[in-house]
Specification:
Helices cover 33% and strands 24% of the residues. By secondary structure, the protein is an alpha/beta fold. The strands form four sheets. The chain has a five-stranded mixed β-sheet with strand order 1-7-6-4-5, sandwiched between helices. A four-stranded mixed β-sheet has the order 8-13-12-11. Strands 2-3 form a two-stranded antiparallel sheet. The longest helix has 22 residues. The two termini are 36 Å apart. The protein binds oxa(dethia)-CoA.
């Protein structure tokens, strides 16, 4: 059998209309636009404010746009993966809800939990499924409604996160040297104390006690996570460049997970990649967890050209981290016309 390469053939995205600005946050907690811009680099983030809507709503909007842009027949989709930390429900899976709403008749779907590395990991899983030859078309959606787990009385975390979703279509080709070229993925298991949600899981199920003590919100020890994020993402980039005989000059774009502009700047510096080659939109959306990388692809699709070497890198709760090398297959400018 000829070798099959997994390629991204389109990107769809969705961000909610409501814009939560630094000014508004500074009326909610003791913070300022100056502090947030200087320490984090976020100006505003999108929030899904409508009651009764969860992650699947954004996921389905992103996937719908993806199907429209690519013209893919919904009946031709074999599988749909939703990677998220904020599923609609503990069960059923958010993927099952999205499949139902989109009316995909021939797909199976599952949720994939890898925090901020969700896109990186699930793209690799989808790529392997495509390479096996058993599946032809897979939708990978990264979606998070971080506002559902953020404590808007905690200034250390509430300024950081936003809501959003982005979807990619992963297909196969026998063309050589395109698409997903290599992935270096790791989970070190050291991260639990530093980034987690204390209650609501099987260790500490929801109760009056957990609600009274505000244990259903994201907890983060920012400084520690910051250090691990910089060290891991920069060494992961260097590892993927080295083992593919690439230098910074060969790379068109680095697309990093976006948690803090200072992390991105430090990673680029350490990995010896000029900042001009890094796709950054954190100022508009904040940290949308799994969605940051595909949202950046969606936002800046017009910049991407056939043959561009892209490096994705991410870091998140667990700790999960890694980098992958991807060769882009279409001119983004023509695709954005359909946005
Ligand atoms: O995507 C998942 C992975 N997550 C990350 O990668 C996030 C990594 N961490 C970070 O991005 C940063 O550590 C934060 C943005 C969370 C915090 O920035 P920092 O520069 O590490 O600040 P800090 O925690 O060291 O706090 C410095 C000071 C403290 O005050 P004192 O103790 O020095 O008086 C904080 O209380 O800044 C204070 N502070 C704030 N002040 C104004 C913390 N948050 C705020 C705020 N506004 N929003």
């Amino acid at each position: 059998m000829e070798k099959i390469n997994a390629i991204i053939t389109g990107v769809g995205g969705y961000v909610p209309d409501y814009i939560l600005t630094n000014e508004e946050l500074s009326r909610m907690v003791d913070t300022t636009d100056e502090w947030i811009m200087e320490r984090v680099g976020i100006k505003e983030r999108r929030i899904l404010t409508e009651e009764g809507l969860g992650t699947s709503y954004m996921a389905r909007k992103a996937a719908k746009q993806l199907l429209e842009k690519t013209g893919a027949d919904p009946d031709s989709i074999d599988a749909l993966i939703v990677t998220t930390t904020t599923p609609d429900y503990k069960f059923p899976s958010t993927a099952s809800i999205v499949i139902g709403k989109l009316g995909l008749k021939n797909a199976f779907g599952f949720d994939f939990s890898a925090a901020c590395c969700g896109f990186l990991y699930s793209l690799d899983v989808a790529s392997t499924m495509i390479q096996s030859g058993r599946y032809k078309r897979i939708i990978v959606i990264a979606a998070d409604k971080m506002s559902s787990v953020v404590d808007y009385t905690d200034r250390q975390t509430c300024v950081l996160f936003g809501d959003g979703a982005a979807a990619v279509l992963v297909e196969g080709t026998t063309e050589e040297n395109v698409g997903v070229q290599d992935s270096f993925l790791r989970t070190d298991g050291k991260g639990l104390p530093f980034l987690h949600m204390k209650a609501g899981g099987s260790v500490c199920p929801a109760s009056q006690f957990t609600v009274d003590r505000r244990l259903h919100y994201l907890y983060q020890e920012g400084r520690t996570v910051f250090k691990y994020a910089v060290t891991s993402m920069s060494s992961d980039i260097m590892e993927i460049l080295k083992r593919n005989n690439l230098s910074g000059d060969d790379v068109a774009w680095v697309v990093p997970h976006e948690a803090n502009l200072r992390i991105i700047e430090a990673v680029a510096k350490r990995a010896n990649v000029p900042l001009e080659k890094v796709i950054i939109n954190i100022q508009h959306y904040g940290n949308t967890s799994a969605a940051t990388i595909p949202l950046a692809l969606w936002d800046e699709e017009a910049k991407l050209k056939k043959g561009d070497n892209l490096i994705f890198t991410a870091f998140g709760a667990g700790f999960v981290h890694g980098a992958s090398y991807y060769k882009w297959v279409y001119d983004g400018a023509s695709a954005t016309a359909k946005k």
